[in-house]
């Protein structure tokens, strides 16, 4: 079959046809690729030229973002102003002025103050600080607005705080006088409340290198009274239940310069209803809030009125999101101590979401101890989630370690605890074992409520009622012991005698062995003691702490099973008998003499060395050492 002949091309090519369309007035849609590129370049150049002043280019009528570094003029200055400080702003404004733009009077005054402020906070300033403060105050006096209004701005607050810090006593006094009438307004302002706190700090501050004069003391007292008098009655209540005002009241309450009676007055005005306060026989603020609540002469009606008033105050504080302030924790603590179970349940629903804030103070931690007993499983789980990554630090905290004990004794979901709290403790186990407070958290799990290991306060905190905990306490404890035991055992096997000689770890060691008399750990202690016995003066064995620990362990030694006394005598004390008898180890020998199986061998050995022991004791006494243990031992043998 013959091939089909190719179709002949039209006399006019595509380019020709496109040219015909352009000639007819058509758009430049039919251009070749080369022509399109040239067209784009021309359009881009035209757009760039058109958008030169604004820093934006326009292509085909559409707005295009400028490339990096293409912005010029005022656009660049605005971009820089967003990330530079006030000092840099002044420099940029100065550059702008040099380019021909004039500043308004307000801008000029702001520039002048900003420049003085930058010089004041500069450590390498050329002028004296009090001179710069004087110039700033003079510039501020020309402003039409009040100083309180100026302090309500970010720049204004920083300027006045710097003037208070670097100014003289008279300049500070002048600032206090000018702000005195507006302290309540400033205390409730976003920036102004910081100025009020600085006024409190610096108006009663003198040089630490000298003792203040009588005149300075009177001025301090007067300034403090001027500030405190503003916060009373309705002003105190309005300020306390304000987002920023409460920070000022918190600063007043915890200030070292405010008297205890004034602090109690502030707290009692919020916590105790006026009807009850007026009927009390004692002077106002003469007792602490806890003493007032625990007073025996309070009638049932007064107790109910105080509880209701505290509940309203706490609920309002929670509504205003003030749980992060320590003075609010005092109200929460007081209410939790007098509240019923139903009131505590209602409070837990309201504040357990922010319970982590309560750990910042002792009062808050004590309130949380009671809330944990009434909180449900979901609320406890949410708290553990909020504390993720902080359990080890909290266990070593002087205030929050009791909260960790409480968590371990109230949370039913031990699987969740193993993945959060216990997992973090295991990672930091050695530090916890030797920590002053961390070892108590671990010791409670092995020996809960032991009066030899825990103070009455700790026993009370950990044993508060917990009606919402459903699991049996012993079952919960055994599950936690299984999780913690391997890591604690590993620490003690690595450092047995160091643990026995540490004031904190020795208690955990005793609790661990009281729970389970571990043969391998006993052998490790004896081996470490044997190595120390060969050192000069018995090394760590002659330590009072180690001796005390060994005496405790000898009392814990079971009648059946591995022994501690016999290997300790044969491997450590017998080879160094004379030295041991004239050291603190004499008390260990006295304790061993009370044990029938090894009593006779020890007596026989000591009687054979009696003369040497007596001579060594006499030599030590001549040098001023006390040989109480050696003398008791000599009397026995």
Automatic annotation (TrEMBL):
Domain PUM-HD, chain residue ranges per copy: 112-487
TM stretches of this protein: none
InterPro entries in UniProt: ARM-like, ARM-type_fold, CPL_dom, PUM-HD, PUM3
UniProt keyword list: RNA-binding
Domain of life where this protein originates: Eukaryota
Basic and acidic residues compositional bias, start-end: 77-97
SUPFAM superfamilies in alphabetical order: ARM repeat (SSF48371)
The name this protein goes by in its record: Pumilio homology domain family member 6
Species, as recorded: Durusdinium trenchii
């Amino acid at each position: 079959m013959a091939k089909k002949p190719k179709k002949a091309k039209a006399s006019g090519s595509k380019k020709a046809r496109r040219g015909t369309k352009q000639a007819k007035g058509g758009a430049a849609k039919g251009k070749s690729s080369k022509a399109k590129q040239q067209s784009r370049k021309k359009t881009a150049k035209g757009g760039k030229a058109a958008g030169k002043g604004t820093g934006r280019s326009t292509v085909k009528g559409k707005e295009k973002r400028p490339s990096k570094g293409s912005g010029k003029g005022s656009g660049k200055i605005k971009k820089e102003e967003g990330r530079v400080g006030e000092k840099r702003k002044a420099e940029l404004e100065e550059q702008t002025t040099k380019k021909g733009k004039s500043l308004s009077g307000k801008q000029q005054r702001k520039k002048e103050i900003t420049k003085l402020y930058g010089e004041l906070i500069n450590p390498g300033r050329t002028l004296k600080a009090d001179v710069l403060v004087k110039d700033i105050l003079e510039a501020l006096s020309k402003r039409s607005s009040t100083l309180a209004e100026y302090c309500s701005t970010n720049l204004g607050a920083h300027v006045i705080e710097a003037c208070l810090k670097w100014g003289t006593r008279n300049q500070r006094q002048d600032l206090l006088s000018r702000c005195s009438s507006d302290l309540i307004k400033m205390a409730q302002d976003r920036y102004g409340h910081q100025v009020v706190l600085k006024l409190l700090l610096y108006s009663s501050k003198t040089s630490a290198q000298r003792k203040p004069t009588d005149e300075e003391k009177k001025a301090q007292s007067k300034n403090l009274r001027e500030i405190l008098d503003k916060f009373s009655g309705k002003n105190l209540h309005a300020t306390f239940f304000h987002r920023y005002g409460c920070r000022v009241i918190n600063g007043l309450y915890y200030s070292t310069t405010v008297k205890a009676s004034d602090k109690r007055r502030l707290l009692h005005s919020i916590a105790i209803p006026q009807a009850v306060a007026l009927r009390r026989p004692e002077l106002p603020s003469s007792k602490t809030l806890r003493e007032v609540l625990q007073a025996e002469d309070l009638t049932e009606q007064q107790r109910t009125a105080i509880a209701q008033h505290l509940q309203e105050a706490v609920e309002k504080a929670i509504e205003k999101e003030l749980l992060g302030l320590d003075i609010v924790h005092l109200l929460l603590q007081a209410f939790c101590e007098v509240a019923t179970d139903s009131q505590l349940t209602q409070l837990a629903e309201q504040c357990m979401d922010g319970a982590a804030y309560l750990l910042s103070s002792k009062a808050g931690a004590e309130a949380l101890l009671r809330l944990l007993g009434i909180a449900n499983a979901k609320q406890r789980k949410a708290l553990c989630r909020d504390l993720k990554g902080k359990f080890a630090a909290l266990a070593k905290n002087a205030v929050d370690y009791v909260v960790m004990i409480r968590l371990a004794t109230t949370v039913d979901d031990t699987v969740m605890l193993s993945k959060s709290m216990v997992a973090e403790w295991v990672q930091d186990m050695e530090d916890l074992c030797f920590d002053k407070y961390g070892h108590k958290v671990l010791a409670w799990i092995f020996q809960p409520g032991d009066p030899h290991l825990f103070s009455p306060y700790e026993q009370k905190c950990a044993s508060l009622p917990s009606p919402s905990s459903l699991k049996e306490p012993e079952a919960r404890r055994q599950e936690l012991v299984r999780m913690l035991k391997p890591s604690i055992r590993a620490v003690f096997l690595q450092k047995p005698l160091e643990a026995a000689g540490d004031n904190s770890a020795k208690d955990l060691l005793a609790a661990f062995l009281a729970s389970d008399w571990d043969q391998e750990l006993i052998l490790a202690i004896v081996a470490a003691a044997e190595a120390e016995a060969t050192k000069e003066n018995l090394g760590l064995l002659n330590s009072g702490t180690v001796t005390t620990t060994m005496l405790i362990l000898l009392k814990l030694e079971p009648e059946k099973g591995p022994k501690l006394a016999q290997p300790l005598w044969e491997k450590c004390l017998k080879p160094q008998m004379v030295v041991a008898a004239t050291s603190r180890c004499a008390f260990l020998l006295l304790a061993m003499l009370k044990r029938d199986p090894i009593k006779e061998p020890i007596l026989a050995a000591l009687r054979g060395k009696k003369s040497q022991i007596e001579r060594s004791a006499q030599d030590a006494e001549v040098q001023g050492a006390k040989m109480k243990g050696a003398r008791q031992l000599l009397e026995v043998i």
